[in-house]
Amino acid sequence: MAASNQTVVVRLPGVLVDLFPGAPRRLEMTAATVAEVIDELDRQFPGMGDRLRDTRPAIRKHINVFVDGDKLKLSAPLRPGCEVFILTAISGG
Amino acid sequence: MSKQPALSDEELTRYARHIVLPEIGGPGQQKLKRARVLVIGAGGLGAPVLEYLAAAGVGTLGIVDDDTVSLSNLQRQVIHDTQAVGRSKGQSARDAIARINPHVTVELHELRLDQDNARDLISGYDLVIDGSDNFDTRYAVADASEAENKPLVHAAVGRFDGSITVLTPFKTDDQGVQNPGYRDLFPEPPPPGLVPSCAEAGVIGALTGVVGTLQAMEAIKLITGIGEPLIGRLLLYDALGARFDTIRYKRSRNED
Q1: Report field, pTM of the whole predicted structure over 0.80
Q2: Could you tell me which residues come within 8 angstroms of residue B54 by beta carbon, excluding any fewer than 6 positions away?
């Protein structure tokens, strides 16, 4: 549940999207914090939240959430219209 | 005797399209000739890296690979051909490089890089390029490059996605802030099994060409000292969406 009506753009990594049929690489949603982004992703794609957030709760250590060059924690506020990049490491060569 | 390696008439003609560029010129071409670059993996990324750096006249290319060429490598590992199936990848790549540019010296390291041998291998080179295919090697390369103060051009691919960045965590930026390293970007590898390998998930061949060629470009920039290397920036390529995005990142070690 978003605490405000601000819209943000969320970009998801390919390896995550591959696990959730129908999930897009880019979606818009209403969210005021990183935690709200993950809540909304989990609502739309059940189980995605567990892939991104552990039980502490915190963002999993192999996952990064970047906005405007900053690595954000769950509680970080988001500015309206920002682009939220969720990244995971890949290893293929 | 000058410290700058002399370029022969044949080399001046071979590299004429470089030398005519003011950013490269004769001095830049001499820097390329003098450079010693270590390439980890002669696979999908390593193939274009080795081909372009050999063609560009990098004087010494070290190759670390303990694998042999298999038929299923050939849709992307374009430095190897059908005749090379079953041969050592290092030897196959060395022969291909000799055909591209006989002025290049190849140093073969037919072994698996790990935490025990990484620093010894890397210490003998000016620059490291990671085209390996697993997290253990990637963390070993990144840690050893940082410990040996060697710039690392890191890239990885999977399915239709690629990423590339340049790591110089032993240096500071213009404001005196320490540059980020691989562990600032990804503090630890994903749990085993979470991120599938290329063998499991597949990889489109041309993607390794795009991303490996970007690695070669970053290496040439670092060697010649031109342009803005991807330091503190991660370039993401989504081939299906035909999107390039660049994400800035900072040193964040020991932060949760």
Answers
A1: yes
A2: B61, B97, B100, B101, B104
